[in-house]
């Protein structure tokens, strides 16, 4: 079930990432790279940091093909995707939550401390988007956007919390996924933002 | 033979990278870092992604000295290098092809799937230039330039193709190197470009 | 002793990094990420390159909490920190030297060649700042600033030199730390710069 949601999420991430690349007039090589990095980069960075080999896309090279297919599809239906904007915002939110929980589960299986389990979830959920923005030469959106990494953080916290209260991994996954998704969707709907740290002085 | 071409290629990459750094008025520390990252970064990223340790430059620290020497040489003969522009374009094309084949061979030795063997070649060939552009705060050239990553991709494909047809690793190397080099040189000569994905709408 | 200096240094790095993030109006998620990356990123990059697992902050997750605390503290006393500018410049110099020596010691324990020991020190000392600048979408300061990476390089060289002359690891640490710190402070005081490589021609 989580696996099916994962496939849907990486495809959706690849599609919206392809549009980002198209907006910068990249050639198709660039489009594929941006799509791969955005969809698979979060898990890759997590695996590098935790020393967890092989990478998901090395043992499942079909993920590279699926996401490349998503990027091509986005090129074909680009103008149509605009009308599906809400669907893709929903799928992006779903991806954030699914990636986060998968990241938590992986760190849990490695018997890492709780702080690292949450961190692993947040990195899995968010690092792909940061990489995309760095490659597109932007300040990462993550650092400016409405509740995004925070929603990932809360999702990881709920997941651990349910387990700490004696819930099974299945229940933890379901409850964290539902609540995390609701939080993220509310944040989009009402444009909730994290407080900013504004510091003007040169020093 | 491939080893000698590799040494020539990393030296040439370091030299042209040093000019890039000089164009941004970097100090000599920056020049060395850009030279190292460009010449050795592709193989390093590949090794990190495949979990292949130690890094080439850790077991062969002389590569760090050779590329640093290349950067210094570029500083000394900068104005002369301009007249050798065609030579350096050729050496860069040679480097792309040599790095790609080395990357394919390494993934092959690790018994990875075919998609990953080609990917390993492309990453080895191209990631150094992407890292250089990110550190210089540019949108990676790779995403905009004439056939470059694609030439790397085709080289990897030919390499695997010759082997699939029963050719030895030596023949695969020679045929892929020659055809890949010709493709890249033709792409430079006639300014072949990959089709771009242009998408104007804000969404 | 080195351990205590390390804790002080990562806290100070996190605090000044938080101000950098504040100057770009990042939200608090961004502030934490920039603080973590700056304070712990150098050692992380070094560990990835040397294949040394687990990461320091995975086995000591309290470092994540300490540096997050430093970032919050910086937010609270931002205007006051300006008056402590000299103290923080000193702590930053101390951090550079301490990180460098820790990086050298780790590579030494891994029995790596001398060039790599120095390189490991320089990466530990400097890569955090490079990552911070890439995430903030700047050309890394390292490539333009007064003697910084060079001070790290000299510190590593002195450390190895004292050991080569028969000194113990303790003496090497103390002598390298004191001389490296003096060099860096003199470089700040007199604005010593590395020579720049200026190359104007387009090619």
What does this protein structure show overall?
- The structure is a homotrimer of 203-residue chains.
- The first copy, chain A, is mainly alpha-helical.
- Chain A has one domain.
- Helices cover 76% and strands 0% of the residues of chain A.
- In chain A, helix 1 crosses helix 4 and helix 6 packs antiparallel against helix 9.
- The longest helix of chain A is centred in the middle third of the chain and has 25 residues.
- The radius of gyration of chain A is 17 Å and the shape is globular.
- The relative contact order of chain A is 0.13.
- Chains in contact: A-B, A-C, B-C.
- At the A-C interface, helix 2, helix 7 and helix 8 of A face helix 1, helix 2, helix 4 and helix 5 of C.
Describe the structure concisely for a colleague.
Chains A, B, C: InterPro entries: Gly_transporter. Three copies of one chain form a homotrimer. The first copy, chain A, is mainly α and 203 residues long.
Structural key phrases:
homotrimer, 203 residues, mainly alpha, 9 helices, globular
Euclidean distance between termini CA atoms of chain A: 52 Å
DSSP E strands of chain A, number: 0
Work out the oligomeric state of the chains in this entry. Answer: homotrimer
List low-pLDDT spans of chain A.
Answer: none
**Helical segment count of chain A:** 9
Structural class based on helices, strands and sheet pairing of chain A: mainly alpha
The level of helicity of chain A is over 70%
Question: What is the N-to-C order of secondary-structure elements of chain A (H for helix, E for strand)?
Answer: HHHHHHHHH
Q: What does the average pLDDT of chain A come to? A: 90
Global outline of chain A: globular
Most extensive chain-chain interface: A-C, 35 and 35 residues
